[in-house]
Amino acid sequence: MADKIPVTVLTGYLGAGKTTLLNRILTEPHGQRFAVIVNEFGEVGIDNDLVVGADEEVFEMNNGCICCTVRGDLIRILDGLMKRKGKFDAIIVETTGLADPAPVAQTFFMDQDVSDKTKLDAVVTVADAKWLTDRLKDAPEAKNQIAFADVIILNKIDLVSPEELAEVEGRIRAVNPYAMLHKAERAAVDISQVLGRNAFDLERVLELEPAFLEDDGHHHDHDHDHACGPDCDHDHHHHHGGLKHYHDEDMQSVALTIDGEVDPDKFLPWVNDLVQREGPNILRSKGILAFRDEPRRFVFQGVHMILDGDLQREWKPGEERRSKIVFIGRNLDKEAIREGFLACTA
Ligand SMILES: Nc1nc2c(ncn2[C@@H]2O[C@H](COP(=O)(O)OP(=O)(O)OP(=O)(O)O)[C@@H](O)[C@H]2O)c(=O)[nH]1
After folding, report:
1. In ligand 1, which atom is closest to the CA atom of 14?
2. Are 202 and 300 members of one domain?
3. Cβ density class 107-135: b for 16+ within 10 Å, e for less
4. Which domain holds residue 105?
5. How far is the CA of 145 from the centre of ligand 1 (A)?
6. For 39-75, how does the pLDDT look when each residue is reduced to its tens digit (9 = 90+)?
7. Which of residues 208, 235, 270 is at a domain's end?
Protein backbone atom coordinates (compact mmCIF):
# COMPACT_ATOMS: atom_id res chain seq x y z
CA MET A 1 0.00 0.00 0.00
CA ALA A 2 2.58 2.48 1.16
CA ASP A 3 4.53 2.64 -2.04
CA LYS A 4 1.65 3.15 -4.39
CA ILE A 5 2.41 6.10 -6.61
CA PRO A 6 0.08 9.04 -6.02
CA VAL A 7 -1.77 10.34 -9.05
CA THR A 8 -3.25 13.81 -9.29
CA VAL A 9 -5.93 14.33 -11.92
CA LEU A 10 -6.01 17.94 -13.06
CA THR A 11 -9.25 19.05 -14.66
CA GLY A 12 -11.04 22.27 -15.42
CA TYR A 13 -12.97 23.70 -18.30
CA LEU A 14 -11.30 25.03 -21.44
CA GLY A 15 -8.93 27.86 -20.66
CA ALA A 16 -9.46 27.81 -16.90
CA GLY A 17 -5.74 27.68 -16.11
CA LYS A 18 -4.75 24.00 -15.95
CA THR A 19 -1.49 24.46 -17.85
CA THR A 20 -0.71 27.54 -15.79
CA LEU A 21 -1.11 25.49 -12.61
CA LEU A 22 0.86 22.58 -14.04
CA ASN A 23 3.75 24.87 -14.96
CA ARG A 24 3.69 26.35 -11.49
CA ILE A 25 3.86 22.89 -9.94
CA LEU A 26 6.70 21.84 -12.22
CA THR A 27 8.84 24.94 -11.72
CA GLU A 28 8.56 25.22 -7.97
CA PRO A 29 11.50 23.82 -5.99
CA HIS A 30 9.71 20.84 -4.55
CA GLY A 31 12.42 18.22 -4.98
CA GLN A 32 9.94 15.76 -6.43
CA ARG A 33 10.05 14.10 -9.80
CA PHE A 34 6.84 13.97 -11.75
CA ALA A 35 5.66 12.07 -14.75
CA VAL A 36 3.08 14.17 -16.58
CA ILE A 37 0.38 12.85 -18.88
CA VAL A 38 -1.25 15.50 -21.01
CA ASN A 39 -4.42 14.84 -22.95
CA GLU A 40 -5.34 17.33 -25.62
CA PHE A 41 -8.31 18.07 -27.69
CA GLY A 42 -7.52 18.01 -31.36
CA GLU A 43 -4.90 16.20 -33.32
CA VAL A 44 -2.23 18.88 -33.20
CA GLY A 45 -0.29 18.78 -29.96
CA ILE A 46 0.18 22.24 -28.51
CA ASP A 47 -0.17 21.93 -24.77
CA ASN A 48 2.84 19.70 -24.60
CA ASP A 49 4.94 22.47 -26.13
CA LEU A 50 3.58 24.94 -23.61
CA VAL A 51 4.57 22.88 -20.59
CA VAL A 52 7.83 24.10 -19.16
CA GLY A 53 10.34 22.09 -17.21
CA ALA A 54 13.30 20.14 -18.43
CA ASP A 55 13.30 17.11 -16.18
CA GLU A 56 9.74 15.98 -16.41
CA GLU A 57 8.68 13.47 -18.92
CA VAL A 58 5.55 14.52 -20.71
CA PHE A 59 3.37 11.94 -22.38
CA GLU A 60 0.87 13.18 -24.89
CA MET A 61 -2.43 11.55 -25.62
CA ASN A 62 -3.82 13.23 -28.69
CA ASN A 63 -6.01 10.65 -30.28
CA GLY A 64 -9.23 11.52 -28.60
CA CYS A 65 -10.55 12.68 -25.33
CA ILE A 66 -9.14 11.06 -22.21
CA CYS A 67 -12.53 10.17 -20.83
CA CYS A 68 -13.20 8.12 -23.97
CA THR A 69 -9.79 6.55 -24.46
CA VAL A 70 -9.49 5.95 -20.77
CA ARG A 71 -9.46 2.18 -21.00
CA GLY A 72 -6.87 2.28 -23.71
CA ASP A 73 -4.16 4.90 -23.88
CA LEU A 74 -4.22 5.98 -20.26
CA ILE A 75 -3.91 2.45 -18.95
CA ARG A 76 -1.16 1.70 -21.45
CA ILE A 77 0.81 4.79 -20.49
CA LEU A 78 0.36 4.07 -16.78
CA ASP A 79 1.46 0.47 -17.27
CA GLY A 80 4.54 1.70 -19.07
CA LEU A 81 5.28 4.12 -16.27
CA MET A 82 4.92 1.44 -13.62
CA LYS A 83 7.63 -0.59 -15.28
CA ARG A 84 10.00 2.28 -14.58
CA LYS A 85 8.99 2.73 -11.00
CA GLY A 86 11.48 4.61 -8.89
CA LYS A 87 12.23 7.15 -11.59
CA PHE A 88 9.53 9.49 -10.32
CA ASP A 89 7.56 10.20 -7.17
CA ALA A 90 4.16 11.14 -8.51
CA ILE A 91 2.06 11.26 -11.63
CA ILE A 92 0.00 14.21 -12.83
CA VAL A 93 -2.68 13.71 -15.46
CA GLU A 94 -3.90 16.87 -17.16
CA THR A 95 -7.18 16.22 -18.95
CA THR A 96 -8.70 18.20 -21.79
CA GLY A 97 -11.08 20.94 -20.80
CA LEU A 98 -13.94 18.85 -22.13
CA ALA A 99 -13.18 15.68 -20.26
CA ASP A 100 -15.51 14.14 -17.77
CA PRO A 101 -13.28 13.37 -14.78
CA ALA A 102 -15.40 10.46 -13.57
CA PRO A 103 -14.18 7.78 -16.02
CA VAL A 104 -10.63 9.02 -15.58
CA ALA A 105 -10.83 8.69 -11.81
CA GLN A 106 -12.53 5.36 -12.25
CA THR A 107 -9.51 3.89 -14.00
CA PHE A 108 -7.63 3.95 -10.72
CA PHE A 109 -10.21 1.71 -9.11
CA MET A 110 -11.36 -0.47 -11.98
CA ASP A 111 -8.17 -1.54 -13.66
CA GLN A 112 -6.41 -4.11 -11.51
CA ASP A 113 -2.85 -3.46 -12.66
CA VAL A 114 -3.29 0.26 -12.33
CA SER A 115 -4.97 0.14 -8.94
CA ASP A 116 -2.34 -2.25 -7.58
CA LYS A 117 0.39 0.27 -8.21
CA THR A 118 -1.14 3.71 -8.06
CA LYS A 119 -3.56 5.57 -5.87
CA LEU A 120 -5.65 8.53 -6.85
CA ASP A 121 -4.44 11.34 -4.63
CA ALA A 122 -6.96 13.99 -5.61
CA VAL A 123 -9.04 15.37 -8.43
CA VAL A 124 -7.99 19.00 -8.70
CA THR A 125 -10.29 21.26 -10.68
CA VAL A 126 -9.27 24.69 -11.90
CA ALA A 127 -12.26 26.98 -12.33
CA ASP A 128 -12.36 30.23 -14.28
CA ALA A 129 -13.87 32.86 -11.95
CA LYS A 130 -15.04 34.91 -14.92
CA TRP A 131 -16.72 32.23 -17.00
CA LEU A 132 -17.65 29.39 -14.67
CA THR A 133 -21.08 30.74 -13.76
CA ASP A 134 -22.03 30.69 -17.47
CA ARG A 135 -20.47 27.30 -18.10
CA LEU A 136 -22.32 25.72 -15.18
CA LYS A 137 -25.48 26.62 -17.09
CA ASP A 138 -24.52 25.39 -20.54
CA ALA A 139 -21.70 22.85 -20.18
CA PRO A 140 -22.38 19.62 -18.27
CA GLU A 141 -18.66 18.80 -18.32
CA ALA A 142 -17.92 21.94 -16.33
CA LYS A 143 -20.44 20.91 -13.70
CA ASN A 144 -19.07 17.36 -13.49
CA GLN A 145 -15.57 18.70 -13.05
CA ILE A 146 -16.71 20.78 -10.09
CA ALA A 147 -18.80 17.95 -8.66
CA PHE A 148 -15.89 15.50 -8.73
CA ALA A 149 -13.27 17.82 -7.34
CA ASP A 150 -11.46 17.23 -4.09
CA VAL A 151 -9.62 20.51 -4.48
CA ILE A 152 -10.90 23.51 -6.44
CA ILE A 153 -8.67 26.34 -7.56
CA LEU A 154 -10.93 29.30 -8.26
CA ASN A 155 -8.61 31.04 -10.68
CA LYS A 156 -8.54 34.42 -12.48
CA ILE A 157 -9.93 36.33 -9.54
CA ASP A 158 -8.28 39.42 -11.04
CA LEU A 159 -10.95 39.45 -13.73
CA VAL A 160 -13.99 39.69 -11.45
CA SER A 161 -15.46 42.05 -8.87
CA PRO A 162 -15.89 40.93 -5.25
CA GLU A 163 -19.62 40.51 -5.95
CA GLU A 164 -19.01 38.29 -8.96
CA LEU A 165 -16.51 36.29 -6.95
CA ALA A 166 -19.03 35.71 -4.18
CA GLU A 167 -21.60 34.69 -6.79
CA VAL A 168 -19.36 32.13 -8.47
CA GLU A 169 -18.24 30.77 -5.10
CA GLY A 170 -21.86 30.27 -4.14
CA ARG A 171 -22.50 28.42 -7.41
CA ILE A 172 -19.54 26.15 -6.79
CA ARG A 173 -20.71 25.39 -3.27
CA ALA A 174 -24.17 24.53 -4.57
CA VAL A 175 -22.60 21.81 -6.72
CA ASN A 176 -19.82 20.72 -4.37
CA PRO A 177 -19.92 21.78 -0.72
CA TYR A 178 -17.02 19.50 0.29
CA ALA A 179 -14.00 20.35 -1.81
CA MET A 180 -11.18 22.49 -0.49
CA LEU A 181 -11.41 25.79 -2.30
CA HIS A 182 -8.52 28.16 -2.98
CA LYS A 183 -8.89 31.48 -4.74
CA ALA A 184 -6.02 32.37 -6.99
CA GLU A 185 -4.56 34.57 -9.66
CA ARG A 186 -2.45 32.84 -12.32
CA ALA A 187 -2.98 29.64 -10.33
CA ALA A 188 -0.68 30.90 -7.60
CA VAL A 189 -1.39 28.43 -4.83
CA ASP A 190 0.91 26.66 -2.45
CA ILE A 191 1.50 23.33 -4.13
CA SER A 192 1.14 21.52 -0.84
CA GLN A 193 -2.52 22.51 -1.20
CA VAL A 194 -2.70 20.64 -4.48
CA LEU A 195 -0.40 17.61 -4.27
CA GLY A 196 -0.08 14.91 -1.64
CA ARG A 197 -3.59 15.56 -0.39
CA ASN A 198 -4.68 11.97 0.00
CA ALA A 199 -8.05 13.49 -0.61
CA PHE A 200 -9.90 11.38 -3.11
CA ASP A 201 -12.96 10.38 -1.24
CA LEU A 202 -14.56 7.23 -2.55
CA GLU A 203 -17.44 7.45 -0.10
CA ARG A 204 -18.48 10.84 -1.38
CA VAL A 205 -18.17 9.77 -4.99
CA LEU A 206 -20.35 6.74 -4.38
CA GLU A 207 -22.96 9.10 -2.99
CA LEU A 208 -22.68 11.16 -6.13
CA GLU A 209 -22.44 8.23 -8.52
CA PRO A 210 -23.63 5.00 -6.96
CA ALA A 211 -22.54 3.11 -10.07
CA PHE A 212 -18.95 4.32 -9.85
CA LEU A 213 -17.53 0.88 -9.14
CA GLU A 214 -19.76 -1.05 -11.51
CA ASP A 215 -18.23 -2.02 -14.76
CA ASP A 216 -21.28 -2.81 -16.83
CA GLY A 217 -23.78 -0.07 -16.39
CA HIS A 218 -24.70 0.46 -20.05
CA HIS A 219 -26.03 3.83 -19.10
CA HIS A 220 -23.99 5.46 -21.75
CA ASP A 221 -26.71 7.47 -23.27
CA HIS A 222 -25.58 8.62 -26.63
CA ASP A 223 -23.96 7.27 -29.70
CA HIS A 224 -23.46 10.30 -31.84
CA ASP A 225 -20.32 12.12 -32.78
CA HIS A 226 -19.30 14.28 -29.90
CA ALA A 227 -16.62 16.73 -29.07
CA CYS A 228 -13.77 14.30 -29.58
CA GLY A 229 -14.07 15.08 -33.26
CA PRO A 230 -13.95 12.93 -36.33
CA ASP A 231 -10.51 11.56 -35.53
CA CYS A 232 -11.54 10.06 -32.25
CA ASP A 233 -11.62 6.34 -32.83
CA HIS A 234 -13.31 5.41 -29.61
CA ASP A 235 -16.40 3.30 -29.49
CA HIS A 236 -19.34 5.58 -28.88
CA HIS A 237 -21.38 2.69 -27.59
CA HIS A 238 -18.77 1.97 -25.05
CA HIS A 239 -19.93 2.26 -21.51
CA HIS A 240 -18.06 3.90 -18.74
CA GLY A 241 -18.89 1.83 -15.74
CA GLY A 242 -22.47 2.95 -15.56
CA LEU A 243 -21.62 6.60 -15.48
CA LYS A 244 -23.43 9.04 -17.62
CA HIS A 245 -20.86 10.32 -19.99
CA TYR A 246 -21.45 13.90 -20.96
CA HIS A 247 -20.22 15.64 -24.00
CA ASP A 248 -21.33 18.66 -25.86
CA GLU A 249 -22.42 17.56 -29.30
CA ASP A 250 -21.78 20.69 -31.27
CA MET A 251 -18.37 21.42 -29.83
CA GLN A 252 -15.67 21.07 -32.44
CA SER A 253 -12.00 21.67 -32.84
CA VAL A 254 -10.24 23.02 -35.87
CA ALA A 255 -6.54 22.25 -35.92
CA LEU A 256 -4.38 23.45 -38.77
CA THR A 257 -0.71 23.26 -39.59
CA ILE A 258 1.34 25.13 -42.14
CA ASP A 259 4.64 23.38 -42.82
CA GLY A 260 6.55 26.60 -42.73
CA GLU A 261 6.41 30.26 -41.89
CA VAL A 262 3.55 32.71 -41.76
CA ASP A 263 3.53 36.43 -42.42
CA PRO A 264 2.82 38.24 -39.12
CA ASP A 265 1.35 41.22 -40.98
CA LYS A 266 -1.28 38.93 -42.40
CA PHE A 267 -1.70 36.55 -39.47
CA LEU A 268 -2.14 38.99 -36.57
CA PRO A 269 -4.94 41.08 -38.15
CA TRP A 270 -6.62 37.89 -39.34
CA VAL A 271 -6.60 36.13 -35.94
CA ASN A 272 -7.63 39.29 -34.09
CA ASP A 273 -10.51 39.86 -36.45
CA LEU A 274 -11.57 36.20 -36.21
CA VAL A 275 -11.77 36.15 -32.41
CA GLN A 276 -13.52 39.54 -32.32
CA ARG A 277 -16.20 38.28 -34.69
CA GLU A 278 -16.48 34.69 -33.48
CA GLY A 279 -15.44 35.20 -29.85
CA PRO A 280 -18.69 34.04 -28.29
CA ASN A 281 -18.39 30.77 -30.23
CA ILE A 282 -14.65 30.31 -29.84
CA LEU A 283 -14.03 28.95 -26.38
CA ARG A 284 -10.35 28.43 -26.79
CA SER A 285 -7.60 29.29 -29.24
CA LYS A 286 -3.94 28.44 -29.25
CA GLY A 287 -1.05 28.50 -31.62
CA ILE A 288 2.68 28.25 -32.06
CA LEU A 289 3.91 30.08 -35.14
CA ALA A 290 7.05 30.48 -37.14
CA PHE A 291 7.01 34.12 -38.24
CA ARG A 292 9.00 35.00 -41.33
CA ASP A 293 12.64 35.88 -40.48
CA GLU A 294 11.94 35.59 -36.73
CA PRO A 295 14.29 33.34 -34.73
CA ARG A 296 11.82 33.01 -31.85
CA ARG A 297 8.56 31.09 -31.66
CA PHE A 298 5.43 33.21 -31.48
CA VAL A 299 3.01 31.64 -29.01
CA PHE A 300 -0.54 32.85 -28.59
CA GLN A 301 -3.59 31.68 -26.76
CA GLY A 302 -6.94 33.03 -25.90
CA VAL A 303 -10.27 32.47 -24.23
CA HIS A 304 -13.25 33.83 -26.19
CA MET A 305 -12.21 37.21 -27.64
CA ILE A 306 -9.26 37.86 -25.36
CA LEU A 307 -5.96 36.94 -27.01
CA ASP A 308 -2.59 36.73 -25.35
CA GLY A 309 0.56 36.28 -27.42
CA ASP A 310 4.29 36.92 -27.46
CA LEU A 311 7.61 35.83 -28.87
CA GLN A 312 9.07 33.12 -26.67
CA ARG A 313 12.12 30.90 -26.90
CA GLU A 314 14.12 30.47 -30.08
CA TRP A 315 13.46 27.64 -32.45
CA LYS A 316 16.00 24.99 -31.64
CA PRO A 317 18.51 23.85 -34.23
CA GLY A 318 16.93 20.98 -36.10
CA GLU A 319 13.46 21.83 -34.87
CA GLU A 320 11.08 22.17 -37.79
CA ARG A 321 9.76 25.70 -38.22
CA ARG A 322 6.09 24.88 -38.47
CA SER A 323 3.03 26.96 -37.66
CA LYS A 324 0.09 25.35 -35.94
CA ILE A 325 -3.15 26.68 -34.54
CA VAL A 326 -6.13 25.16 -32.77
CA PHE A 327 -9.59 26.61 -32.22
CA ILE A 328 -12.18 24.91 -30.05
CA GLY A 329 -15.72 26.13 -30.13
CA ARG A 330 -19.26 25.84 -31.36
CA ASN A 331 -20.50 26.19 -34.92
CA LEU A 332 -17.08 27.05 -36.23
CA ASP A 333 -16.79 27.56 -39.97
CA LYS A 334 -13.87 25.21 -40.45
CA GLU A 335 -13.46 25.89 -44.14
CA ALA A 336 -13.35 29.66 -43.71
CA ILE A 337 -10.83 29.34 -40.86
CA ARG A 338 -8.70 27.02 -42.96
CA GLU A 339 -8.69 29.36 -45.94
CA GLY A 340 -8.01 32.37 -43.75
CA PHE A 341 -5.05 30.70 -42.06
CA LEU A 342 -3.54 29.30 -45.24
CA ALA A 343 -3.70 32.80 -46.75
CA CYS A 344 -1.28 33.91 -44.02
CA THR A 345 1.49 31.66 -45.38
CA ALA A 346 4.69 33.66 -45.84
N1 LIG B 1 -6.25 37.37 -16.25
C2 LIG B 1 -5.84 36.12 -15.93
N3 LIG B 1 -5.47 35.28 -16.91
C4 LIG B 1 -5.07 34.04 -16.56
C5 LIG B 1 -5.02 33.61 -15.21
N6 LIG B 1 -4.59 32.33 -15.18
C7 LIG B 1 -4.36 31.97 -16.47
N8 LIG B 1 -4.66 33.00 -17.31
C9 LIG B 1 -4.59 33.00 -18.79
O10 LIG B 1 -5.68 32.22 -19.27
C11 LIG B 1 -5.30 31.53 -20.45
C12 LIG B 1 -5.57 30.04 -20.31
O13 LIG B 1 -4.67 29.46 -19.35
P14 LIG B 1 -4.19 27.94 -19.44
O15 LIG B 1 -3.40 27.66 -18.21
O16 LIG B 1 -3.55 27.65 -20.73
O17 LIG B 1 -5.60 27.20 -19.38
P18 LIG B 1 -5.93 25.64 -19.60
O19 LIG B 1 -6.98 25.31 -18.64
O20 LIG B 1 -4.67 24.83 -19.56
O21 LIG B 1 -6.49 25.63 -21.07
P22 LIG B 1 -6.87 24.31 -21.96
O23 LIG B 1 -5.75 23.35 -21.80
O24 LIG B 1 -6.98 24.84 -23.35
O25 LIG B 1 -8.18 23.83 -21.49
C26 LIG B 1 -3.84 31.88 -20.70
O27 LIG B 1 -3.79 32.93 -21.64
C28 LIG B 1 -3.36 32.32 -19.33
O29 LIG B 1 -2.28 33.22 -19.43
C30 LIG B 1 -5.43 34.55 -14.18
O31 LIG B 1 -5.46 34.28 -12.98
N32 LIG B 1 -5.83 35.78 -14.61
Report:
1. 25
2. no
3. bbbbbeebeebbbbbbbbbbbbbbbbbeb
4. 5-208
5. 17
6. 755 444 455 555 544 344 566 555 555 555 545 677 8
7. 208
